[in-house]
Write a structure and sequence with these properties.
It holds the Pfam family Peptidase_C14. It comes from Lacibacter cauensis. GO terms for molecular function: cysteine-type endopeptidase activity. One of its GO terms (biological process) is proteolysis. With about 700 residues, this protein is an alpha+beta fold. The protein has five domains: about 35 residues; about 270 residues, Rossmann fold, CATH 3.40.50.1460; about 80 residues, Beta Barrel (Thrombin, subunit H); about 90 residues, Glutaredoxin, CATH 3.40.30.60; about 180 residues, no CATH class. About 20% of the residues lie in helices and about 25% in strands. The protein contains twelve helices and 36 strands. Helix 3 runs parallel beside helix 6, helix 4 runs parallel beside helix 5 and helix 9 crosses helix 10.
């Protein structure tokens, strides 16, 4: 029974019985309505499991899972999760029984039907022998708990198998009911290989947990095709979506300056862009894009009800302005915005009085520049002193955004002492290179197993070979080779990270896979459209094979004629300008409002294999990025003058003689100057 409370103040001045009865009924209905509205607001609960240091006897290497905790916790708090409703268990607490008990206490006992729950796991994963015949390859996927051994041991099993994990999640879903919502994030992997070490920690192993002589069954009656096969829709159960850091055959690499889980970092960045209308599929699309920048060798996976709105439609969008989190002095504050929101040092700010809804009619109180950017908070220096009372209520708006600099962390692993000294000298004179002992973004190696002693090799942290060069050539030639590769990597990394949104310039594209056959007896071709599912995997990742072909379909969701350029960034850091084509002028690449245009140019897929990214840049005036990238390497006086701020930004990152200095003004731009729509896709060899 719902208790009803009467407001006697409003019900006391009654003149007639009729008026009294009407007012009484009104009060009852009003209070019932208020109680029901309050009851319908769901609570949000989360359980974060992070294992950095496994029991010494297990054989597992330590991880940096502890660094995932502040990322996930802060991202959830910004989505309305109360700190008291976020539980964290670490290391020794995270045994199999400890995890299952915490799930019971936090996500069932505390949570009510209709609530929103999140389960996050950071740690190792492993494939274990299938014990019920539901796996096509004869192995279950499992979470490696604190005391799970890497090598097979008989007796009590300490891994948390996908089946048992799934049963517990189904119990949570049943408790939450059809009006509830459950999100699962697993930042682990279960197998995979790497050609060399030194790339940073990996979460997972090639070792399978099975007794000697175990032969996986191949004729299973029930085939479990998903990574964990979670989130199947069932009547009466809460919808559930699940994200995984990599495919079952891939390693999951820790990454970034934070040395954290790639999925944890990508999830935090993607969630920062989400709003109440974002679906889990849309969230996963952004996760996939973020991971293509950080760990291009990984293919994240997703399962479950991906077309549902995240958190049941209760997600909070990115704020349009910020307030001072901390007042350090009359000219120094911190604001709640940082690298997770793609804002870096050098970004300029405008400080306005509170309640400034139209900046065009109000003069800013001060300007500021971000001097240090953290993940979720940044420190800013004002150009004018303001009182503490003013700073407490002021609204802070982004003015021109810096998307980071072009510095590349480089790790050198060279056995030849003379060559090592030579390479380190070259790097010390390169403004883009930052020497680090371990976990660089780029590795320069010589003398290791599998490498010729007569050459040195440049590779990415994702184990992608950028090039090899003989160490018997001149110092000048070696320096030119190293500097060119580092500049190319820096430029491509910057472009991959570039994310600018303006809904008024909303132009997107779609892949149209095609079947292409030469007609017999002439040079004509027979072209047939193929379904999109022919190039997508179960998680929606786009995967092309060698010799596949495609067109692009462009859609203008805006209200005016817009111009576009299309770039492709290859795994080897080559930047291709697809449009405008060689035979086109910038004015040719336009699309009218509401139109959908299929471009006739056919693209054929080939090496290099790995993760590519295509970016469509839309603006109100014509762009000519072909001119910018075709002139790479020209002296400053020879480079054509840019037509708009975005071309100027691209010219800035295309210089090879220097690195952009934070706060120089050359690498900042109005955040809504253009709209960038990005889609990553993977290239793999042709299946035989």
């Amino acid at each position: 029974m719902i208790p009803i409370y009467f407001n006697h103040y409003y019900c006391s001045e009654i003149v007639t019985t009729t008026r009294y009865n009407m007012k009484l009924i009104f009060c009852i209905l009003l209070n019932v309505l208020l109680v029901n509205v309050t009851a319908q607001v769901p609570e949000k609960y989360a359980l974060i499991v992070a294992i950095s240091n496994y029991a010494p006897s297990t054989g597992w290497n330590p991880l940096n899972s502890e660094n995932d905790i502040p990322l996930i916790k802060e991202s959830l708090k910004r989505q309305g999760f109360k700190e008291a409703n976020i539980r964290i268990i670490r290391d020794k607490e995270a045994t199999k029984q400890g995890i299952l008990l915490a799930m019971q206490q936090q996500l069932i006992t505390k949570a009510k039907p209709g609530d929103i729950c999140v389960f996050h796991f950071s740690g190792h994963g492993q494939q274990v022998m299938d014990n019920n015949g539901d796996e096509a390859d004869g192995y279950d996927e499992a979470l490696v708990t604190y005391d799970s051994p890497m090598e097979y041991e008989g007796g009590t099993e300490k891994h948390l198998r996908d089946d048992e994990f799934g049963f517990k999640l189904e119990e949570i879903r049943k408790h939450l009911g059809s009006n509830g919502n459950l999100l699962v994030i697993v930042d682990a992997c279960h197998s995979g290989t790497s050609t060399r070490s030194g790339l940073g920690n990996y979460r997972g192993t090639t070792t399978k947990y099975a007794p000697k002589g175990y032969k996986p069954a191949t004729n299973t009656k029930t085939i479990n095709e998903g990574l964990f096969s979670l989130g199947e829709s069932k009547p009466g159960l809460a919808p559930m979506s699940a994200f995984f850091a990599s495919a079952a055959s891939e390693l999951n690499q820790e990454c970034g300056e934070e040395h954290c889980g790639s999925l944890s970092l990508a999830f935090s960045k993607a969630l920062a862009k989400a709003d109440a209308k974002t679906s889990y599929r849309g969230l996963f699309d952004n996760i996939r894009l973020e991971m293509s920048k950080m760990v291009p060798g990984q293919t994240p996976n997703a399962e479950g009800d991906l077309d549902k709105e995240i958190f049941g439609g209760a997600a909070l969008g990115k704020p349009t302005y910020y307030t001072a989190e901390k007042i350090i002095g009359k000219k120094k504050i911190t604001i709640g915005c940082g690298k997770i929101y793609s804002v870096f040092a050098g970004t300029t700010l405008l400080i306005y009085p509170s309640n400034t809804y139209n900046k065009e009619t109000v003069k800013p109180l001060a300007k500021a520049v971000i001097t240090a950017a953290g993940d979720y908070s940044s420190e800013a220096e004002l150009d004018t002193e303001l009182s503490e009372d003013v700073l407490k209520t002021a609204w802070v708006f982004l003015d021109e955004v810096s998307f980071g600099d072009l510095t590349v962390p480089v790790t050198v692993k060279i056995k030849d002492a003379q060559l090592q000294q030579q390479v380190q000298k070259i790097l010390s004179q390169n403004k883009q290179a930052k020497l680090v002992a371990e976990q660089g973004d780029v590795f320069i190696e010589q003398g290791a197993d599998g490498f010729s002693a007569d050459s040195f090799y440049i590779s990415t942290s994702g184990d992608y070979r950028l090039g090899a060069y003989s160490n018997k050539t001149t110092d000048e030639a070696i320096a030119a080779f190293i500097n060119t590769k580092i500049a190319g990597y820096a430029r491509a990394a910057y472009l991959r990270n570039l994310n600018m949104k303006n809904e008024e310039l909303n132009v997107v594209f779609e892949f149209v896979p095609i079947e292409y056959k030469k007609a017999e007896g002439n040079n004509n071709a027979i072209i047939k459209d193929l379904p999109l599912k022919s190039i997508t995997d179960a998680s929606g990742n786009i995967v092309f094979q060698h010799d596949d072909r495609y067109n692009l379909r462009i859609i203008n969701n805006g209200q005016e004629r817009l111009y576009y350029n299309i770039l492709e960034i290859q795994p080897d850091n080559l930047v291709n300008v697809l449009f405008p084509a060689n035979n086109q002028q910038p004015m040719d690449c336009f699309i009218n409002p509401g139109d959908t245009v299929r471009l006739t140019r056919i693209f054929r897929i080939g090496p290099p294999d790995g993760m590519n990214v295509i970016k469509l840049v839309a603006a109100r005036s014509p762009l000519n990025l072909r001119q910018v990238f075709a002139n790479n390497g020209l002296s400053r006086g020879d480079v054509p003058k840019p037509n708009n701020p975005f071309e100027k930004l691209m010219q800035g990152i295309n210089k090879t003689d220097a690195v952009q200095t934070r706060g120089s003004g050359e690498e900042t731009i109005q955040p809504d100057a253009v709209n960038i729509f990005s889609v990553p896709y993977k290239i793999v060899p042709k299946k035989q």
